Every structure is written in C-alpha cells, then in structure tokens.
Amino acid sequence: MTATEQQAAGTLSGPLRAALIEKLTALADDEIILAHRDGEWTGHAPILEEDIALANIAQDELGHAGLYLELRRALDGSDADQLAFFRDAADYRSARFVELPKGDWAFTMVRQFLFDTYEALWLDAARTSTYAPLAEVAEKAFREEKFHLQHTALWVERLALGTGESRRRTQAALDELWPYAAQLFQPVPGEAELVAARIVPDLDKLRGSWESFVLPHLTGKCGLTLPDAPADAGAGRDTHTEHLAPLLAEMQSVARAVPNAEVW
Amino acid sequence: MTQPPTPHPDTQWPRWEVFKQDAPGRPHQAVGSVHAGDPQHALVTARNVFVRRPAAVSLWTVREADILTATPEELGTRPEVLDTPGEAGTYHVGLKRTHKRSMTFVDLVGTVEASGPGDALRQAREAHPDALTWLVFPESGVVRTDEDPGTVESWFAPAKDKTYKQQQYYGVIGRHIGELKREGLMPGRAKEGVQE
Amino acid sequence: MTQPQLVQPGETAEQHAAFEARIGRGEKIEPGDWMPAEYRRQLIRMISQHAHSEVVGMLPEGEWITRAPTLKRKTILIAKVQDEAGHGQYLYHAAETLGISREEMLDALLSGRAKYSSIFNYPTQSWADVGMIGWLVDGAAIKNQTMLAGCSYGPYSRAMVRICSEETFHHKQGKEMIVAYAGGTPEQRQMAQDALNRWWWPALMMLGPHDADSPNTGALAGWGIKLKTNDEVRQEFINEHAPELLEAGLTIPDPDLHQDAEGNWKHGPINWDEFWAVVKGQQGLNRERLGARREAHEDGAWVREALEAYAARQVGQAAD
Question: Which band of pLDDT confidence, cut at 50, 70 and 90, is reported for residue B57?
C-alpha cells in the first residue's frame, strides 16, 4: 500500500468509504470469476496460439483484481487472498454474467468482448477519478483492456462471419449472454454518492457509450441479431447463479484444506 | 518456400514469420512464427506469443509464402533460387551474420528495389557477401503495428509489469549455491562416465 | 568421424565429411543447407517429441489452475502453463523448418504414433505436486535444454535459447513453493514430502535410459545434436538438487543416495521396468492425456474452419 493510497483513504467519509469498499469488491469479484473461467481454457483451446492468448487475458484480469483489492486494503485492511478464498458464494459480489460456465469458444469470445468493452470504457472514465489511487489503477489497467478489446472484437467478427456453424454458435452465445450483460451496469448500494463525488464513473452514461460501441459491431459489422431482453438487470450482486458455489468450492479447496497456513 | 506441400488439408492455418523490434533504433529481428488466419489476426497473435515478456516497441508479420531465404551453400547447389520470380517493388533484406548462440534468426538491415524476390536476394548477396543467411520479402507483404504511443502502451508496455515471470522476482531461495559448494555439498561439475 | 552406416543412398561420404567438418567448426546448420537425411529424420523425431512433451505437459499442472490457493499462485501457474504452450509453439516452428507441417506432427501425437516425455503420464495428486514439478521436472528439463541450446541445428538451438531464458522462472517458482511448504504447517510439510516421494524417481528417469541402453546417443553426439550423455546430464541434475532438497529439510526417497569421493551424489538403482511401462503407455495417464488433447483439437475444429472461411472471404472480396 503506497503512502498516497493511505492518505487518500483517510480523506473519505464513512458512507463513501463503505460504498467504495462495496464497489471495489464487485469490480474485483468480476475479474476473479472471469479469470477463473478463462483459466479453464489453458491447455484446451482450439489452437496453440489461442491457449497463449487466453492465458494472457486471464493473467491480466487477475492482475486487475489484485489492483482493486489492494485499494480495498487501504480502506479496511482486508487481505486479498482471505477475501478470494475464504468468502462463500453469498458474500461474493460478482455479476451473474461472469459466473456462467465457459461454454464453447464463441461463448467465451462473445462474453469477453462484451466485458472488455465495458471494462475498457469504465477504466477510461475512471482515469479522471477524484480518488487518486483509483485513477492510477485505471490508467494502468486501461492499457491492457484496450488490447483485449482488439483481440476479442476481432474474434467475434471472424466467428460471426466464418462458417454457418460458427455463425450459429456466435448468435446462440449472444442470445444467452445479452440478458445477463445488463447487470454490469447495475450500481452497488451507495454508488450514487460515489458518482456524485466523481470517484467512479456514472454507469448510466457508460451504458450509452457501451451500446454505441457494441451494437454497431455486433449487428452492423458482424451481422448478428440482438435478442429481446429486458433492460432491467434484475436482482442485485448478492444474488448468484447456481454455477458460483461449485466454482468457489473447487477454487477454494486447496486454500481451505490448510486454513492456518501462513504462506501458500 | 523450400517446403513440400502437405499431403492433406492443413487445419493449422497459414504460418507467418514474426519480426520484433526491442527498442527504437534497433533492427527488427526474426523471432519465430505464428499460425494465424489472416493478417490482422497474425499481428495480434504475434503480440500474444512473443510479447509475454519485455521488450518490444514494434512487430511485423509476413506470410511464410512471401519470404525467400538462402544460405551460401544453398546458392552453390541451387543458383536458380536467384531467379525466383515475383512482383517488382521494394523488398526488405534480413541477414544472419554469426554462428553465435542466439534466440533470433536474421536482423532486418534495410530495403532494396528489385524486379522480384530472386533479384532482391541477388542484391542482398552482393551488398553483404559474408552473410550466413539472406532473407527477403516484399514491403507489400508486411503487416505492422501502429507506431503511435497509445498502441505501444497497450500492446507492449504491460509486459514490463508482469515481473512474476522473471526469475529475478524470486531472488535467492534457501542458502546460496556458493555456500553449498564451499561446504562440499554441491560439486562444481559432474564427472564423466558417472554410472556406478 | 564419419558414420558410414548413416550415409544413405544418394549421399556420399564426402558430403558427410564436409557436413561434419562444418559442425566441428562450430557452424550452425540452417534450413536450406545440405544435411544427411538421417540428421533431418533424427531432428524431426527429437524436436517434435520435445514439442509434444510441452503441449501434453500443460495438462497435469493445468488441472490445478482452478485450485491454486492464492491469486498470485494462480497468476504464476497460468503464466507457467502458458509458457509451455509457447515452448511447444517455438519447437513446432523449429521442426517446421525441416519440412514437416504442424498438422502432420499433431496427427502423429493424437493418433498415438508419436512419443512424448512419459513424465507427464504421472498423475498430479496434490497442490504441492505443482511445486515439485517446477523444481524437479523443470529442473531436469533445464539441464537438457541448456545442452540443446548449443546444438548444431540453428532453428532448434534458437528455440532452446529462448526456452531456457523463460524456463528458469518455472524452476524458481516451484522451488520457492516447496521450500516455503517444507517450512510451513505440518500438513504443508507432509504435502511437500509426499510430492517429493512421488516425483524424485520419475524426474531421474525422465533424463532417459543409461548410456549403455540409449540407442540414439552415438549418432546424435557425432552430429552435435546431443552434446552430453543421459548419465552426465542426470549427474548434473542430482548434484544440484540433492543438497538443495536436503537443505529444505526434506527426505529424498533413496536409501542408497550418497556422495562419492569427488562429491558427486550417487543414486541407488532405478526401477526401469516402471519407466518402460509408463513410456509404452501401459501405466499412467497416457490415454487420458491424449484424450484431453484430442478433445481440444476436435472441439476446436469448427473454430479453425471459421477463421479459414473468414480469411478466404476477405481474399475474395479484395479480388472483386
């Protein structure tokens, strides 16, 4: 934790601090779970080069989770690994969008494309956060997301315009994922105050920019059809898919087997 | 180019040679190849494969089929390589100059105006008679990364932060090897014919 | 030291002598150069086996990515398994320069015709196995790879130089883990010791049969492909690792292990029957490992076809 982080953390009021902790947890949890899904591909991708590509993305997302949790640590002294490996599903704040099983290559690429666009735009906006440590983290992570986005946008285009089968699979992935994507723009409790203090970007505005980027790509360039889906995100981030608990049971099994271990 | 056609359909996509520049002012060097579907995909893949670690500021990819190489010995036995036809234009020239151990093959040293790949190779040989391998490809076959700072930052800079892939990150673990050697626990060099 | 039995029809003893003289002068052989057919065949065999080993080698450790106990360990393990994909990729590239396609090599692997290092047919039974593989299996691999970085074929040598520069990280992260666990809780210590019990002998065996039983060594040495014998490399490996494992407070599962008068650590007899059973796929996870690779290959077929179709369309449109 840097001195700047410590100092910045000291300037936040109680409610803002609590809201920022909630927000950072949600951001980190999305990255942890998505990286886990991407990591499941390592050794099983369609071609060697893509094993390597997806492993890059997974490492980057885990890195971002670490950055967010480091910011949280400055606020409440919590430990990143304790949070990742000793919280149950009920205490996770991941979006249901990232919890869905990895699916096929089309599903993985469409999900990553939708998420990368959202994350790149969020980070871009967060670079001007009034909370200096967050602005710094956003600057760093933004560079990587820009590249991810190039990679996944390229893949979605190729799959959508490839063969009949690849097009069918890509459309099916979009049909399944689209309704879940709305939750990425659902604020956490107290987020309005964070937005008012210009600590985090406004998700409503962000959604507009996101749509103006993903819609032309998906329906224009790639010729895909958007499914009908309610614009409402549904339940909050404390409600999970049935997939999260088994994912965590596996992910946390080694860490929890020796709970008193000082070092892993 | 010297390779025989594969006997059955190849599902591994075409091969692209990758040239990486480590720092401004340094030559692009042949680091290996990637299998990729199309030019843009090749470039992104080259970044994923060859910039997992620092350092890079620019990447070029060139389709394998657009590259012509020759060694002095090869030209001795197959001089017709110098007549390889193709389109006229600007050609890049790469040279291998030493037998020293290296992780790169040729360095790109500049361009020539040539009537085709064979002619480009001939010019490369005349200008650099001592080279151990000459390699040429047309400028029209190059796909390259943008040179703007934004691209360099997002494609190449992040690798520097992935320090956990560097062995220095782990430092000395346990006692230093030198200490084990001084105590005779670790001999300096294995004796030959060691099986008892 | 021309090897007449290796002169094939259409080749002359003079060609062989000139070729060996080049190697003797420390020159690297490049793809367009003349080379004996047997040299090419041996290289394709070795390099593709080596590439397959990297690719199959992703699996035993890859299974633990989803269970790594900290975010840092998970990131490191993904990077390590990713490197193995990368090393397979570099090696296939080196073999491709000899006129064989990656498609053909993968066919040989997936159909069970090609070999890969039998070490990857052993199961990983606990998280500590991941660390022990890094320390011992990668430690043994580095000994081999360092030697091969000096080999006479340019593309293979270059791939090995690149691989060696990356592989040291694999070794270090494994050693760091095991040393930490050996000094950790009783459960962690036991986990580290169990892992050593499982991996010590396979690591020694992966460096290949004793010199007297190694059919290819002579020809490969003469052509500057293999610069040290299996037993030499094995001795280097033990000399470095035995004292470090003992230093970490672990027990090496070999009652006969001792230092000789020169300080070399001498191992007891190796159970080669087990080794050959695993090599021949009679034991271990050969079927599972190949099954997993075949599944990835088959499940990915539509993806590879899609990209080809996309590229063909782009070319078609450009021509219009």
Answer: very high
Same domain, C145 and C65: yes
Q: Which residue of B has its CA nearest to A155?
A: B41
Whether C181 shows a pLDDT value over 90: the answer reads yes
Residues C214 and C319 placed together within one structural domain of the fold: no
B146 within domain boundaries: yes
pLDDT(C154) > 90: yes
The partner residues of C259 in beta bridges, in order of sequence, read C265
The strand pairing partners of B95, in sequence order, are B107, B134
Q: Is the residue at A166 inside a domain? A: yes
**Contact yes or no for B110/B77 (Cβ under 8 A):** no
Phi, psi of B103, deg, nearest 5: -95, 0
Give the best residue of B11, B35, B183 to mutate against chain C (max C CB count within 10 A).
B11
Among C196, C192, C209, C194, CA closest to C271: C209
pLDDT tens for each residue of A166-203 = 999 999 999 999 999 999 999 999 999 999 999 999 99
- Residue range A79-90: average pLDDT? 98
DSSP string, chain C: ---GGG--TT--HHHHHHHHHHHHTTPPB-TTS---HHHHHHHHHHHHHHHHHHHHHHHHHHTTGGG-SSHHHHHHHHHHHHHHHHHHHHHHHHHHTTT--HHHHHHHHHTT-S---GGGGSPP-SHHHHHHIIIIIHHHHHHHHHHHTT-SBHHHHHHHHHHHHHHHHHHHHHHHHHHHHHTS-HHHHHHHHHHHHHHHHHHHHTT-S-GGG-TTHHHHHHTTS--S-HHHHHHHHHHHHHHHHHHTT---S-TT-EE-TTSPEEP----HHHHHHHHTTSSTTHHHHHHHHHHHHHHTHHHHHHHHHHHHHHHHHHH-
**Is B2 among the domain residues?**
no
List of chain A residues whose C-beta atoms are within 8 Å of the C-beta of residue C300: 45-47, 105
ipTM exceeds 0.95, yes or no? yes
- Check C161 against B53: CB less than 8 A apart: no
At residue C259, does pLDDT exceed 80? yes
For residue A38, the model assigns a pLDDT of 97
Q: Is the pTM of this model over 0.90?
A: yes
Tell whether C226 and C308 lie within a shared domain: no
C119 shares its domain with C140 = yes
Q: Which of A41, A47, A163 should be substituted to probe chain B, the one whose Cβ sees the most B Cβ atoms within 10 Å? A: A47
Give per-residue pLDDT as tens, B72-101: 999 999 999 999 999 999 999 999 999 999
CA distance A190 to A184: 16
**C319 and C199 together in one domain:** no
φ/ψ region of A43 (left if φ > 0, alpha if ψ in -120 to 50, else beta) reads left
Which residues span the domain enclosing C302? 285-320
The domain in which residue B28 lies consists of 15-182
Which residues does chain B have within 8 Å of residue A151's beta carbon, measured at their own beta carbons?
44, 48
Q: How many domains does chain B have?
A: 1
User: Which residues of chain C are within 8 Å of residue B31 when distances are taken between CB atoms?
Assistant: 162
Give me the residue from B104, B165, B192 closest to C232, CB to CB: B192
- Report CA A249 to chain centroid distance, whole Å: 20
Give the CATH number for residue C110: 1.20.1260.10
Do the beta carbons of residue C152 and residue C23 sit within 8 Å?
Answer: yes
Q: Contact A147/B154, CB-based, under 8 Å?
A: yes
> Which chains border B (3 or more CB–CB pairs < 8 Å)?
A, C
Does B158 lie at the interface with A, CB-CB under 8 angstroms?
Answer: yes
3-class SS of residue B77? helix
For the stretch C281-297, pLDDT in tens is: 777 789 999 999 999 99
Residue B196 belongs to a domain: no
CA A133: distance to chain centroid?
Answer: 19
Tally helices (H) and strands (E) across chain B: 5, 8
